[in-house]
Specification:
GO terms for molecular function: ATP binding; phosphorelay response regulator activity; phosphorelay sensor kinase activity; protein kinase activator activity. This is histidine kinase. It catalyses: ATP + protein L-histidine = ADP + protein N-phospho-L-histidine. Keywords: ATP-binding, Kinase, Nucleotide-binding, Phosphoprotein, Transferase, Two-component regulatory system. This protein is an alpha/beta fold. The protein folds into 3 domains: 123 residues, Rossmann fold; 53 residues, no CATH class; 164 residues, Heat Shock Protein 90, CATH 3.30.565. Helix content is 46%, strand content 18%. The chain contains 11 helices and 12 strands. A 5-stranded parallel sheet has the order 2-1-3-4-5, with helices on both faces. The protein has a 5-stranded mixed sheet with strand order 7-9-10-12-11, covered by helices on one side. Helix 5 runs antiparallel to helix 7 and helix 6 runs antiparallel to helix 7. The C terminus is likely disordered.
Length: 364
């Protein structure tokens, strides 16, 4: 099991001992070590598990855990201490730790069981949070987005009755077309909501080709590409990674599809590239020549139902990029809009490939 661990302890000998035990149990894992001055920014990608010494010099381990949890809600925290204390144990669990253990009792098998249990608890908490967010999204759709087409349908039915009573064929034909559009809008909302919810489903992960996932997305986009005379340049080697191929293809379909739909009258031209990024990661970038996203909106663009200014005339539900973020996070990666791009839009997706071992710098 390849995991990312963070050991926070002011004692270098204890850091080494924890690293030794963790690598003995989880040999393919990344072990990061740091002292009390560590911040989330120092670590970068959140660890799967953080072992935090309670007796740090300038701050208690529980206080530091609470600070880090604000940035790492999915990390499983385990509080360690040189001396056993039931009061500390109760306080640790009460304030968000997955478990607590005195250093004198740490051995290979107990540590393995503790970490596996902590990961299971963290995963359960993450799933509950995702389900809560999905329920909120569903409620928003029901309360807001469905009301408009339903009102439209009711109005058009009244108009249809008038047309039928007057035997006005032209009016009936117009109303029928408008009813068709309203039905399409509601269907698109249902499809988009279903796609967003499906990203939490436990689809199997497998070793698959990144290039193939992109190619599958392009096949799905063939009608749109042809209709808009779009040109998509793909410069991606046949990199293989552990992923859910259908979900990864959905991510690229949403991003590339947006690039085509938001061309703003230009002939859509999209460039998809990939390069090795920080150790053990690949960075995929999708750049286009479209209308772009205002800089002040780029961080919010991945929230549900947040559509950029200028998007009113483009068909969409506001869930496409939110779904992309869920897929990226489920794969242990992230997605964001390039903050410096001045023309068009550039979306970056960073995904993990393999993991190594490193040491974080101490902070004075």
């Amino acid at each position: 099991m390849a995991l990312r661990f963070l050991v926070i302890d002011d004692d270098a000998a204890d850091q080494r001992e924890f690293s030794r035990l963790l690598l003995k149990i989880f040999s393919d894992s990344t072990i990061l070590s740091a002292d009390e001055g560590v911040t989330a920014a120092d670590v970068g990608e959140p660890p799967d598990v953080a072992l935090v010494d309670f007796g740090l010099v300038g701050i208690t381990g529980i206080e530091l855990m609470e600070e880090l949890r604000a940035s790492w809600p999915s990390t499983a925290f385990i509080i360690t201490t040189g001396q056993g204390d039931e009061e500390i144990a109760r306080d640790s669990i009460k304030r968000g730790a997955a478990d607590y253990i005195p250093k004198a009792k740490i051995a290979t098998e107990p540590l393995r069981r503790m970490i596996e249990n902590a990961l299971a608890m963290s995963d359960m908490r993450r799933r509950l949070q995702e389900q809560q967010r999905d329920l909120e999204v569903f409620a928003d759709v029901m309360v807001h987005d469905f009301k408009s087409p339903i009102r439209t349908v009711r109005f058009l039915l009244d108009e249809l009755k008038i047309g039928l009573e007057a035997n006005d064929a032209q009016a009936i034909d117009n109303v029928t077309r408008l009813l068709d559009r309203a039905a399409e809008r509601m269907g698109a909302l249902v499809d988009s909501l279903a796609c967003h919810a499906m990203t939490t489903k436990d689809l199997p992960f497998e070793i698959a080709s990144l290039r193939e996932a992109i190619d599958v997305s392009l096949i799905a986009l063939t009608p749109l590409i042809a209709a808009e005379s779009a040109v998509v340049h793909v410069h991606v080697d046949d990199v293989r990674l552990l992923c859910s191929p259908p979900q990864l293809s959905q991510l690229f379909q949403n991003v590339i599809g947006n690039s085509i739909k938001y061309a703003g009258g230009n002939r859509p031209e999209i460039y998809v590239s990939a390069q090795t990024d920080e150790p053990g990661h690949i960075l995929i970038s999708v750049a286009d020549n479209g209308i772009g996203i205002p800089k002040e909106f780029r961080e919010r663009a991945f929230e549900p139902f947040k559509r950029a200014p200028g998007a009113a005339n483009v068909a969409g539900t506001g869930l496409g990029l939110a779904t992309c973020r869920k897929v990226a996070e489920r794969h242990g990666g992230r997605i964001w809009c390039d903050p410096e791009t001045e023309s068009g839009t550039m979306i970056h997706v960073r995904l993990p490939l393999e993991r190594g071992r490193s040491q974080l710098p101490s902070r004075a």
